[in-house]
Design goal:
The chain is mainly beta and 81 residues long. 5% of the residues lie in helices and 28% in strands. The protein starts with 15 loop residues before the first helix and ends in a 12-residue tail after the last strand.
Length: 81
Protein backbone atom coordinates (compact mmCIF):
# COMPACT_ATOMS: atom_id res chain seq x y z
CA UNK A 1 0.00 0.00 0.00
CA UNK A 2 1.42 3.41 -0.97
CA UNK A 3 1.55 6.03 1.77
CA UNK A 4 1.56 9.75 1.16
CA UNK A 5 3.43 12.26 3.24
CA UNK A 6 1.06 14.06 5.63
CA UNK A 7 2.49 17.50 4.75
CA UNK A 8 1.84 17.07 1.03
CA UNK A 9 -1.59 18.13 -0.03
CA UNK A 10 -3.47 17.84 -3.26
CA UNK A 11 -3.21 20.93 -5.47
CA UNK A 12 -5.82 23.57 -4.74
CA UNK A 13 -7.29 25.92 -7.30
CA UNK A 14 -6.04 29.48 -6.80
CA UNK A 15 -2.71 31.05 -5.96
CA UNK A 16 0.24 29.35 -4.26
CA UNK A 17 -0.51 30.94 -0.87
CA UNK A 18 -4.06 29.58 -0.88
CA UNK A 19 -2.66 26.13 -1.59
CA UNK A 20 -0.53 26.38 1.55
CA UNK A 21 -3.33 27.63 3.78
CA UNK A 22 -2.65 31.37 3.38
CA UNK A 23 -4.56 34.00 1.51
CA UNK A 24 -3.70 36.69 -0.97
CA UNK A 25 -4.30 40.31 0.01
CA UNK A 26 -4.60 43.03 -2.61
CA UNK A 27 -3.21 46.33 -1.35
CA UNK A 28 -4.42 49.63 -2.78
CA UNK A 29 -3.30 53.22 -2.29
CA UNK A 30 -5.16 54.69 0.69
CA UNK A 31 -5.51 51.41 2.64
CA UNK A 32 -4.85 51.62 6.37
CA UNK A 33 -2.09 49.21 7.36
CA UNK A 34 -0.01 48.13 10.34
CA UNK A 35 3.66 47.16 10.09
CA UNK A 36 5.00 46.05 13.46
CA UNK A 37 4.13 48.80 15.94
CA UNK A 38 3.60 51.43 13.21
CA UNK A 39 0.26 52.33 11.64
CA UNK A 40 -0.12 54.28 8.44
CA UNK A 41 -1.63 54.66 4.98
CA UNK A 42 -0.34 53.11 1.77
CA UNK A 43 1.03 55.68 -0.68
CA UNK A 44 2.54 53.40 -3.37
CA UNK A 45 2.39 49.71 -4.26
CA UNK A 46 5.36 48.32 -6.17
CA UNK A 47 6.16 44.85 -7.42
CA UNK A 48 8.40 44.07 -4.43
CA UNK A 49 7.90 46.81 -1.80
CA UNK A 50 4.95 48.75 -0.41
CA UNK A 51 5.47 52.39 0.59
CA UNK A 52 3.38 53.79 3.41
CA UNK A 53 3.14 57.04 5.35
CA UNK A 54 3.05 56.58 9.12
CA UNK A 55 0.69 58.56 11.32
CA UNK A 56 3.66 60.62 12.58
CA UNK A 57 4.39 61.74 8.98
CA UNK A 58 7.35 59.53 8.03
CA UNK A 59 7.56 57.60 4.75
CA UNK A 60 8.64 53.96 5.02
CA UNK A 61 8.74 50.85 2.85
CA UNK A 62 7.98 47.25 3.76
CA UNK A 63 7.69 43.84 2.16
CA UNK A 64 4.11 42.70 1.51
CA UNK A 65 4.33 39.83 4.02
CA UNK A 66 5.13 42.34 6.79
CA UNK A 67 2.08 44.51 6.07
CA UNK A 68 -1.29 43.82 7.75
CA UNK A 69 -4.36 45.55 6.36
CA UNK A 70 -6.53 47.01 9.12
CA UNK A 71 -10.05 48.38 8.83
CA UNK A 72 -10.13 52.15 8.49
CA UNK A 73 -12.28 54.31 10.69
CA UNK A 74 -15.43 55.91 9.28
CA UNK A 75 -14.85 59.55 8.23
CA UNK A 76 -16.78 60.99 11.19
CA UNK A 77 -14.87 59.03 13.85
CA UNK A 78 -11.80 60.68 15.35
CA UNK A 79 -9.14 59.29 17.64
CA UNK A 80 -8.42 62.74 19.13
CA UNK A 81 -9.73 63.35 22.63
Amino acid sequence: MAMTCPWRRAPVDGDALAGRGGRQVNFQIGDSVQVGARVGTITDVGTVLIQYKTNDGGLRVACPWEVVKIPSLPPRVSLQL
